[in-house]
Amino acid sequence: MATANQRGQHAHERGTGPGPEAGDLHVLAAQLRRMNGEINRLVHGFAGGHGLHATDVQALAAILDASEPMTPGRLREHLGLTSGAVTACVDRLERAGHVRRVRESADRRVVHLRYVPEAREAARRYFRPLAEAAAATRSRFDDDELAVVVRFLTAMNAELGLLRSDER
User: The pTM is what?
Assistant: First the structure.
């Protein structure tokens, strides 16, 4: 039985079907790797310019994107690091002026990690070309196409999250 990838390739050879750009798993994987590489290049540039590790930038993104205040424990879980590694990461971020440890609740043992506003602005300036590239790309798609892209990325992230869960 032919795989979906093979069926897509055969349809492309016949001049029918969506062609390799839409249905070829290898093309899709290569494009995802290429995008990941380009984003990693930007992340490493930001990290190097601020005396950070790439993992520290991942931590900053997690703090920024969190739907509720980030704690070191939740950050450890999100990044898949040990407690000691997260402590070292947060220490670097705090020394570099990117985050603050804040005790906001009645339980003084609970520490929240807050992105320092000035550091957030520096990150926005650095990553503005990425945001502009995303906006330029978005303008080439209609709302229905973007809904499919978002649905794909959401499902892909969910699948990758399951892989992370399986590693434990």
Answer: 0.74
